[in-house]
Design brief:
The complex is a heterodimer.
Chain A (H helix, E strand, L loop, with lengths): L4 E17 L10 E10 L10 E4 L4 E4 L5 E7 L1 E8 L6 E7 L3 E2 L2 E3 L18 H4 L5 E5 H4 L11 H5 L5 E3 L7 E3 L7 E5 L2 E3 L3 E2 L4 E2 L6 E7 L13 E7 L8 E6 L3 E11 L3 E10 L1 H5 L13 E6 L1 H13 L1
Chain B lengths: L1 E17 L2 E20 L5 E23 L2 E5 L5 E15 L4 E15 L2 E6 L5 E7 L4 E19 L2 E12 L1 E3 L12 E3 L7 E14 L4 E18 L17 E17 L4 E15 L9 E2 L6 E10 L4 E10 L3 E2 L2 E7 L2 E6 L5 E2 L3 E17 L2 E12 L9 E7 L8 E7 L5 E9 L1
Antiparallel strand pairs in B: 1-2, 2-3, 3-4, 3-5, 5-6, 6-9, 7-8, 9-10, 10-13, 11-12, 13-14, 14-15, 15-16, 16-17, 16-18, 18-19, 19-24, 20-23, 21-22, 24-25, 25-28, 26-27
Classes of the chains: A mainly beta, B mainly beta.
């Protein structure tokens, strides 16, 4: 029985994203005002997606969007603003709402002594309380724990372990959601559409886990802001890069090595993250196979400038 | 308000070679995208989103060729296509009462294929008899659709809810798989004067319950989907490379249906956590021009799909994980008869996807060992070793089946064997991760 060798060359000229953020319009009236702002991790400066914000007195709340932004408009009064985010210390602050308030918050990470791993950063009962149906959010920390072939952590192989999501047999570049075809999944990397996320028969996706913050999969009940594909939305949020200090993450594995560099361009306002991955499977298998291809590319390379630009724009827009 | 502009240039090349089997594909898509989203919170009860997206697509000529023994099929000179795609939407997540919450939205999408473009027209015996040439920017085809979406949540008690949703969807881009080869192939084609947009409706419902103060999360979800204008290559399509042609001239169109139930239980906290999922489902297709118009199973129809994921944190240094997956095998179309016509072997295939490959199952294990931080000058380098075994009991899972011929037809001793190919045997590995 022969061994099949694939050879994939992918040139996704890094999707260049320009993102401009402007203040979201608030409804101004005489006795209602808005409290809004960003929620971030105090250590890395990464935005917290899906953090819960509520006003204790009236038990009303909202959650942060994919840019870590929240906004609530309520009747004027004195409130206690509470922010909770699993894996982080709660934040509480008394606010007097008689004008629009901008409140940016940094949350401190909890330290676990038992080695216990935090699964998700969401409200713990979100699966019961929200209108989301057929929706799963996975934290990349959870994905990184799973046993994987050749030690290669991969977001796409991780979601194939969820009900309703099928791996297309061993190592296919696609995944199938609820009987839909591989073309019926809308894969978004930040805001950019990814047409094919697979490498090497799909054994590795183009998404370097060191650059991914979290992933959200919608299998059914797709909200109207998504469209163009029938079966699912896979929304992959990338890290913005550490805006506090320089950081290096990397790994040396059997068939590939990877490196991610991140750090502030300007402290707290602008950051970058650059990741690279090189598989040497092409080198390893060369003695055993007859590769009939002219281009010999095994490099999987991805540069993310996306969120760092967002951060800098936010800075000029808001501060 | 949040506005995004994206330029993306995507090229895909895929080559697979084996002794008597080969496959090669190249294609590309270039997109200019402009997207704007607004968030509006008139009160804490409402979260209104509205916005729009516009994409200008360029589908760059691709090239596909496949080789089985000495026979090569190829699709050459795929014609470049251009299209505008856009959508507007409004969506409200509305807390009506304490127990009832509704997420309702509507999306209006439109698609226009524009020139330059050449449409070749064919007669019944597949000869090009005519062509229509469109100038730059000239309209070739127009489509639009209204897509209502609604989902609601009814809180039954503090930790239990019932949810239901109804979703309409249009899809203007299609991925055509070459039917005779069960390999992952990628050829994106836009809707055109010949290819209508895919249209889908999904009904879904489910019960969600958390137990023991959100330590356990459970759900049962059911869904029923219908899909129209799905695309496949025509049966026995082996497009000749000698003449220019539109790729979509070899397409046939049909419907799909899919329904199933998903069971999920997860333990979210504690030293021991993980989840178990089970899906019972059925996916069929009906194409007037395939399988004599009879309904057939989709290639990835999967009756049973079961997975167990378990993680255990022994202490701050050691973490263990195990994964077990089981799935019904994929379907395939197999030859049933061989004829010898003028010295050539002619294969007659059985009913579309009527053969079921053996079941797929596999177990993986991993152990993460957090090592003491390394001191490099003044820095502490956190580092860990991940030991992992993929396919622990070395199951030879089916990857695909091909037919191998032995002997010579003219000598009368030609035999055909179906061969099952497996790709990944037991694979141990170790990775060293670091961070500073």
């Amino acid at each position: 029985m022969g061994f099949i060798i694939s050879h994939v060359f992918m040139n996704r000229l890094p999707a260049i994203l320009f993102i401009l953020l402007f203040s979201s319009g608030s409804l101004l009236s005489q006795n209602r005002h808005t409290v809004s702002g960003y929620v971030r991790d105090s250590a890395s400066g990464e935005y917290c997606i899906g953090a819960n914000i509520y006003l204790r007195e009236i038990l009303k709340g909202t959650s942060t969007n994919t840019y870590g932004f929240y906004s609530m408009t309520v009747d004027d009064g004195d409130y206690t603003l509470v922010i909770s985010y699993l894996g982080y210390h709660n934040f509480e602050k008394k606010i007097k709402l008689d004008k629009d308030i901008r409140l940016n918050i940094s949350l401190g990470r909890m330290v676990f002594t038992t080695g216990e791993v935090v699964i998700t950063g969401e409200a713990q009962d979100k699966n019961v309380k929200s209108t989301d149906i057929g929706t799963v959010r996975m934290d990349v920390r959870e994905i990184k724990q799973l046993p994987v072939v050749f030690g290669e952590v991969d977001v796409l192989t991780a979601i194939q372990l969820l009900p309703g999501v099928q791996a297309a047999g061993e190592g296919s570049s696609g995944f199938y959601v609820r009987g839909g075809g591989p073309d019926q999944n809308l894969i978004l990397l930040d805001e950019a559409i990814v047409y094919n996320a697979g490498h090497l028969f799909g054994f590795f996706s183009v998404f370097n886990p060191d650059a991914v913050k979290d992933i959200n999969l919608i299998k059914g009940g797709m909200p109207a802001n998504y469209g163009g594909r029938l079966a699912s939305v896979l929304d992959i949020a990338m890290k913005e890069g550490n805006s506090k200090k320089f950081e290096v993450d990397g790994g040396i594995g059997v068939i590939s090595s990877r490196l991610a560099l991140q750090g502030p361009v300007k402290k707290d306002t602008c950051s970058y993250i650059v990741t690279a991955r090189r598989t040497y499977i092409d080198v390893l298998v060369k003695p055993f196979v007859n590769l009939q291809c002219s281009k010999d590319q095994g490099i999987i390379f991805m540069i993310s400038m996306a969120k760092s630009i967002i951060v800098s724009r936010t800075a000029t827009g808001f501060f | 308000m949040n506005t995004t502009a994206v330029y993306s240039d995507y090229k895909f090349e895929f080559i697979a070679e084996q002794d008597n089997f080969g496959f090669r594909l190249f294609s590309g898509i270039r997109d200019w995208t402009l997207k704007s989203d607004f968030n509006y919170f008139p009160s804490v009860l409402h979260n209104i989103k509205f916005g729009g997206i516009y994409i200008y697509h360029t589908f760059i000529p691709g090239n596909v060729s496949a080789r089985i023994n000495e026979d090569t099929l190829s699709l050459n000179k795929i014609i470049r296509q251009y299209a505008h795609e856009g959508a507007l939407y409004v969506n409200d997540d509305f807390d009506i009462t304490e127990w009832l919450k509704v997420n309702a939205g509507i999306r209006y999408s439109l698609f226009r294929q524009v020139g330059p473009f050449t449409r070749y027209r064919k007669n019944e015996i597949d000869q090009i008899v005519d062509s229509v040439v469109y100038k730059r920017g000239e309209r070739v085809a127009d489509y639009s659709g209204i897509e209502p979406r609604i989902s609601m949540r009814i809180l039954l008690n503090k930790s239990t809810s019932f949810k239901a949703s109804y979703t309409h969807n249009y899809q203007y881009l299609h991925l055509a798989a070459i039917s005779s080869i069960s390999m992952p192939t990628d050829l994106w084609v836009p809707s055109s004067d010949r290819v209508k947009p895919q249209f889908g409706i999904q009904y879904a419902g489910g019960i969600f319950k958390n137990l023991r103060n959100n330590i356990f999360e459970t759900s049962v979800e059911v869904y029923y989907k219908t899909m129209e204008n799905m695309v496949e290559f025509a049966e026995g399509a082996a497009p000749e490379s000698s003449i220019s042609d539109n790729t979509d001239n070899s397409f046939v169109f049909g419907e799909g249906k899919s329904y199933g139930a998903e069971f999920f239980i997860a333990k979210r906290k504690g030293k021991f956590h993980g989840w178990i999922g089970y899906t019972l489902s059925k996916t069929t297709r009906t194409f007037p021009d395939i399988n004599d118009g009879e309904e057939f199973y989709a290639k990835y129809d999967r009756r049973h799909d079961f997975e167990v994921i378990a993680n255990y944190s022994l202490n701050s240094r050691w973490t263990f994980s195990a994964v077990f997956v089981y799935a019904t095998g994929n379907t395939a179309t197999m030859p049933v008869d061989f004829y010898l016509i003028e010295g050539n072997v002619v294969t007659e295939y059985g009913k579309r996807n009527s053969y079921r490959m053996p079941d797929y199952h596999r177990m993986d294990l991993s152990a993460t060992w957090n090592l003491k931080p390394l001191k490099v000058q003044s820095m502490a380098v956190e580092n860990s070793l991940v030991f992992s075994i993929y396919n622990l009991y070395n199951r030879l899972n089916p990857y695909f089946i091909y037919i191998d011929y032995d002997g010579d037809a003219l000598d009368g001793d030609l035999t055909a064997h179906a061969k099952l190919v497996s790709v990944f045997p037991i694979l141990p590995s170790v990775t060293w991760n670091f961070r500073f």
